[in-house]
Please model this.
Amino acid sequence: MTTIDTGERRRGADTRPVITELIDEATVEAIAQEAWISLVGEDEVLVPLPGEPVADPLSSWVDVVGPWTGSVVLTTGRRTAEELTRALLREHSPEVLEDEDVADAFGEIANVVGGNVKAALPGSSGLSLPDVGDAPALRNPEDVCRVDLLWRGETVSISVQGALPPLPAH
Amino acid sequence: MRALVIDDSRAMRRIVSGILEGLGYETRQAGHGREGLDVLETGWVPDLACVDWNMPVMDGLQFVSAVRSNPALRSMTIMMVTSESEHTQIVRALAAGAHEYVIKPFTADAIRDKLALLGLLPQEAVL
Amino acid sequence: MTLTTTSFDWVRQLVHRESAIVLQPGKEYLVEARLLPIARQAGLADVSQFVESVRSRPSPDDTRAIVEALTTNETSWFRDGDPFTALTSTVLPALLAARGPNERLQIWSAACSSGQEAYTIGMLLEDALPNAASRVSITATDISREMVQRTRAGRFSQLEVNRGLPAPMLVRHFVRAGNEWEVAPQLRRMVTASECNLAAPLPRMGPFDVVYLRNVLIYFDLPTKQAILRRVRDLMRPDGWLFLGAAETTLGVDDSWERVVVGRSSAYRPLKGK
Model:
């Protein structure tokens, strides 16, 4: 039997949900905003506007394994990641920031955002320890929920992206 | 009063220790559950342990279970501080013996509020 | 249009006066972000205009809305603790002894804001009484429609549920809803929320056994405070209990109340013959 691909995901015998069925951009934004208030500062505001593409990107992410499996990836410029680190550490900020300091702080932000995204998903899921570096590749363009935010004028993107490639079309 | 802060993120350890020290606590840190148990084994027993969940080597839930099965550590209050915030996760943590649970994202006041509820503020809380 | 220094200073002083919370310079961003929804509701395009309009014609409702919007993350469950522990330790047993077994206890949260107070009361009663929902009803009122809607919805953010709510109570009385927490259906059914302006003649409600009128009288002048206390008293049982904010008192305002020590808190009871 021929199935016409209308561009909508057809599930048929496949019961894997895509992220857009489980969470929306507004929720991811709200999660990010609360994380920023807590970690970066009470008067911090994230503006949901696209910014300049990130020149020297750094990403941090956590993996979610459960009824939906994928990663919650934060991406921003390296300099912005350093500013975030200083904001997190406040008066404990060292004179010179090592890569390790940035990885630790930026990773923790991914932990907080990722943990809360996971909790907004149905069912029970596991959360990995954070990782930092080049963003994991996008496996399925249909299985992504992405928000672009501006923090102090700098771009911060959050991509909730599925780990599994799309099913082959029939 | 003494507190042990256990989290694999150095930044988070500093943040939580900073909050507790501001409330009058003397603090020590550990990077995962096993390191936390090592601190306790030296004989330094805190009044409070703030424990993350997801950590390498030994996670927070395992730490809570280990502590709860040790009668010598009965006086220690355990507060989890974690981004794990599913309903079932919180229930599991409380069932394993954690006394309180702070969800990340939290503010300094949230920790102070919880400590006030537990009667663990070294000085009178000023609202 | 950014907030002018004069406007910001006025807001800062207002917030400090009414809530003791300090807004540091540099927090103009926060004031802008938090007051914009209220400014819009007032039909104004920006926060500066709104603040100026309230400055030139202060009203208790507007000033309260401003203070609440800026202290919203400060709102906690079991605020000040003792007026709530007093409920289960002293007030509830006294009422159960004084009332018949089929009489429903009525409690009023008279400036309910986003609902934390009403649901705090509900949680305590659910944990203290079997079949609390059939023994007690909680009326939650506020002048703000938005706040009444929030109370009805019973939804709170992660940051909000962290504030003074014991974790065991969180898991007993809340379910997850997206990235928020929602009051469980049984608890939600105990609370009925409606709009009510305390400074105007009150609708027929109650009669109430317990009233929580906390941190709202401070926004009114003396004659209005007196009028409000009179109206509240008229809706209370003669042996009812009134709880005010931690720094509030009827002393010097209305002498028809008797102050009673309840645990580490105070309550006010209608004085007989007054």
The longest helix of chain C spans residues 82-98.
